[in-house]
Known about the structure:
6-stranded mixed β-sheet, Transposase_MuDR_N, disordered N terminus, Transposase MuDR N-terminal domain-containing protein
Amino acid sequence: MSFHVMSEKTYFQIYYGQGEIRYGQFGVDLSGFRSVTKGLDRATERPFRSVYNWFMKCFKLDADECELHISAVTTRTSSPVYWELVPIDNTTFWKRFVDVSCGVVYLSVLFVQVYEKVIVEAQTTHVYDEATIVEQVVENNVNEVNEIGDDDQVKEANLFGSQGVR
């Protein structure tokens, strides 16, 4: 395989689909997945969101129903070569991958996984901060004390083993 940049277009070998990611002597082995070679115009200039949207269009996916996980297949060593999957989820990682890929003789390889979006319906919950809770407890206690008559105070004090209020 060789790296191709023609007329501002960068070509990638893209592995995708369902399957098991295997590891062998040289690292990640994606041979069990389908693959396609696609060219992307001005790859080094694009923000990650643009690249993400490009993949959504390439695979004809609905952004409301699916989400992508994109990983680069790269190595940190040249001898011995050991291939790894490195997630790409922001512009900095994307541009670094493309820049590094331009300097090698291998075709830039990406692995794209499609997941169904899980939509969680919002539930209404009441969240109170500690100050609100303390304020409410104090207010309730004051109301209870105000409702208790003198005789009730004596009985209540005796229940707790203390001398009654006279």
